[in-house]
Amino acid sequence: MKLVTALIQPEKFEDIKIALENLGVDGMTVSEASGYGRQSGHTEIYRGKEYNVRLIPKVRLEILADDAQADDIVGVIIATANTGSPGDGKVWVSPVDEVVRVSTGERDLAAI
To answer: What are the transmembrane regions (predicted)?
Structure first.
């Protein structure tokens, strides 16, 4: 099993969610996040004064998947989130040793 984690631009979330549902993903955790990478934030002008904004708003997706589906999930996220501009986000995959569904006690793939 794998945990696919992605940080994406908020305006891309709906498109990615639809693409993942079309792939057969039926569950994910979504949370708001903020951060910066190589782009180091951006400059905004408010009331005529420039401000450096270091933390950029992002959406964090976490999806539990079996090993075979994890690569497909990563591919869909990358294809849908990519604008070709800095700040498109990151995707990483982590191994998961065990998953337990709290309500039923089901374990591993049955719990996903």
So the answer is: none
pLDDT at 40: 65
Model pTM score: 0.83
Q: What is the token pair recorded at 3?
A: 């945990």
Residues 45 and 29: their CA atoms lie apart, in Å, by 34
Q: Which pair of structure tokens corresponds to residue 102?
A: 């709290």
Q: Which amino acid is it at 71?
A: D
Query: Who contacts 46 (Cβ-Cβ below 8 Å, separation ≥6)?
Result: none
Output the CA–CA distances (angstroms, integers) from residue 102 to 4, 48, 72, 112, in the order listed.
21, 53, 27, 11
14: left (phi over 0), alpha (psi -120 to 50) or beta: alpha
- CB 91, CB 68: distance < 8 Å: no
- DSSP letter assigned to residue 107: B
